[in-house]
Amino acid sequence: KPTLSLRDLHKGYNLGKPNEVRVLQGASLDVAPGEVVALVAPSGAGKSTLLHIAGLLDTPDQGEVVIAGEAMNGLSDRRRTGVRRGTVGFIYQFHHLLPEFTALENIMLPQLANGVARARTEAQAMALLSRVGVAERATHRPAALSGGEQQRVAFCRALANAPSLLLADEPTGNLDPETSERVFGALMDLVRDTGLAAVIATHNLELAAKMDRQVRLSGGVLEPA
Ligand code: ADP
Ligand code: ADP
């Protein structure tokens, strides 16, 4: 069964008011385990809205989100939060690392908050940092890292709880093209290693072409690109 099913999603803002915006108007998508889907969309098309709904940060007005066979509609907030923390990893365009903590600590903090033992979390975090080539920077704070290194640390943080679904919103969007390509390569290696299902939004058509499949968000619906 698909890791993620989005079924006929509708979402709008300020509905019924003069400033009404209809963003999603029947968007559907299935992502199989291990499948990496590129989401391409012009700015303002509703990419963030879609990713937030898929990642259980927001709810649709109509339609259904099904994660690993479990329908999310009608779940309690508590259960939704549980599924989000246990199943979904997020990567944003800006890394949102905490400046006062080291790279290693930034990766470990969500895990420690979830009650995972420190020794185990630390070993996992170091393994991830090694995998993306940032192990020697483990004890540096974000300000001492390059943009590409910061973003690779954010990838490690997103994958630290071994999610089955990765959602990324322009994961290399704030990096120069050369760094972007290298850092994206590190992300794809990680994703392929872990067999994650992923939806990765990008404006970069070269990067999109390296994924398994491309979908375009346009006019509120998703279609093959
Ligand atoms: P994208 O990520 O593709 O740029 P968004 O999902 O952020 O698109 O936004 C899609 C549309 O919905 C835009 O027109 C945006 O202005 C509007 N929008 C997004 N969030 C809100 C909100 N909270 N209230 C009103 N309008 C919103
Ligand atoms: P943008 O869509 O403008 O690039 P972000 O992707 O950084 O902005 O964040 C979009 C929204 O997601 C924000 O409104 C924020 O509240 C929410 N958000 C970001 N990170 C998290 C998180 N780790 N947990 C819950 N909500 C988050």
Automatic annotation (TrEMBL):
| Family classification | Belongs to the ABC transporter superfamily.
What are the record keywords, sorted?
ATP-binding, Lipoprotein, Nucleotide-binding, Transport
Q: Name one GO molecular function term.
A: transmembrane transporter activity
Q: Which organism is it from?
A: Yoonia litorea
Kindly give the InterPro entries that the UniProt entry links to this protein.
Answer: AAA+_ATPase (IPR003593), ABC_transporter-like_ATP-bd (IPR003439), ABC_transporter-like_CS (IPR017871), ABC_transpr_LolD-like (IPR015854), MacB-like_ATP-bd (IPR017911), P-loop_NTPase (IPR027417)
Record-given protein name? Lipoprotein-releasing system ATP-binding protein
ABC transporter domain location: 4-225
BP-aspect Gene Ontology terms: lipoprotein localization to outer membrane; protein localization to outer membrane
Is-annotated flag, keyword Ubl conjugation?
Answer: no
Q: Which GO terms describe its cellular component?
A: plasma membrane
Which residues are the signal sequence here? none
Pfam family, any one: ABC_tran
